Amino acid sequence: MSDIKDEFVQRGVNAIRDSLGRLVKKEKMTAADQQAVLARITGTTSLSDMGKADFVVEAATENETLKLNIFKELDGICRPGVILSSNTSSISITKIAGATKRPEKVIGMHFMNPVP
Q1: Residue 2 catalytic?
Q2: What is the per-residue pLDDT across 40-56, written as a single tens digit (0 to 9) for each?
Q3: Of residues 33, 89, 110, 111, which has the active-site annotation?
Q4: Residue 23 and residue 54: Cα distance in Å, rounded?
Q5: Tens digits of per-residue pLDDT, 97-116?
C-alpha cells in the first residue's frame, strides 16, 4: 500500500486491521487469518515499490492530471503483465489507459464510500 505520507499509510493499515477485527468478532474470520492478511500488507511512501505488485488499485483524488501522472509512472515501474486499475468515478478509463503503454491492462474498479 502506497500513499504520499507515512501517516496516511498507517491510517490505511489501521482501517484494514479494524475491518478485519470486526470480521473476527463476528466469527467470520479467525484471529490467525487476520494476522496472516496483515502480514501480507507492506506500506510505503515510494511509488517505485509498486514494482513488486501483481495487481495495482489506484485510489488517488479525482484529479485527472494527478491520476494520469500516476499511471504513467506505474507503467514504467510495474512488470508488463500487471493490471493497473483505477478507482475513478469521473475520469475516462480510456483516457487513463492512454497514459500507459498497456491500455489493455488498465481497468476501472469504482468502490463506493465507505469501502467495507
Answers
A1: no
A2: 999 999 999 999 999 99
A3: 110
A4: 26
A5: 999 999 999 999 987 766 65
pTM of the model: 0.85
Length of the chain: 116
Q: Are residues 57 and 89 in the same domain?
A: yes
Spell out the long-range contacts of 21-30 with Cβ–Cβ below 8 A and sequence spacing 24 or more.
Answer: none
**Residues 106 and 65 grouped into a single domain:** yes
- Residue 101 sits in a domain whose CATH number is 3.40.50.720
Quickly count: other Cβ atoms within 10 Å of residue 25's Cβ: 10
Whether residues 57 and 106 share a domain: the answer is yes
Same domain (yes/no): 70, 24: no
Q: CA 69: distance to chain centroid? A: 15
What is the rounded distance in angstroms from the CA atom of residue 72 to the CA atom of residue 10?
26
Residues of the domain holding 99 = 46-116
